[in-house]
Amino acid sequence: MEENATQHEDQDEYVLLDLDGVYGLIDIPANANYVLTGLDTLNPVLIIDDRFKLVGEYEETIGTCIAFSEQDTPVVHEETGPSETNRFSGTKLIDSSQPSTKQVKPVCQLHKILKFKLSPDSEIRTAEEAN
User: Fold this and answer.
1) Is residue 128 part of a domain?
2) Cα–Cα distances in Å, from 33 out to 46, 119, 122?
3) Where does the Transcription factor TFIIIC triple barrel domain start and stop, copy by copy (predicted)?
4) Could you report the per-residue pLDDT of 39-69, keeping only the tens digit for each?
5) Which of 9, 15, 60, 98 shows the greatest Cβ crowding within 10 Å of its Cβ?
6) Is the distance from CB of 36 to CB of 69 less than 8 angstroms?
7) What is the C-alpha to C-alpha distance for residues 52 and 50, in angstroms, rounded to an integer?
8) At residue 30, does pLDDT exceed 90?
9) % of residues, the chain, pLDDT over 90
10) CA–CA separation, 128 vs 23, rounded Å?
11) What is the rounded CA–CA span in Å between residue 125 and residue 121?
12) For residue 39, is it within any domain?
């Protein structure tokens, strides 16, 4: 019984960081530095670019919540057939005239969503104040 408890503790837990609550209020640069602290508390803190302080709150997911990754995949044609004129039999050719397709793969199952909002005690300039 003790072994099962130890194995359960070693499992990874994935959390989705939801920034919809601050979308449009602040301008977050694409490669902004950030510090995420207090993941084991009720209200983790996310500081972005030493300018924006956000406070999070956990929300349990309902049902199955799965995160996916997306990759561009080129269109590939495989030449087949016993034809003597088919010099590329059994080879794969990338068709550059076709746009890439998207390949989607599941990454993990999520159990919690961490929703962030602006910290009430933060001296943050919002996008509206900056203009």
Assistant:
1) no
2) 11, 18, 18
3) 9-117
4) 999 999 999 988 899 999 998 888 788 888 8
5) 15
6) no
7) 6
8) no
9) 23
10) 12
11) 12
12) yes
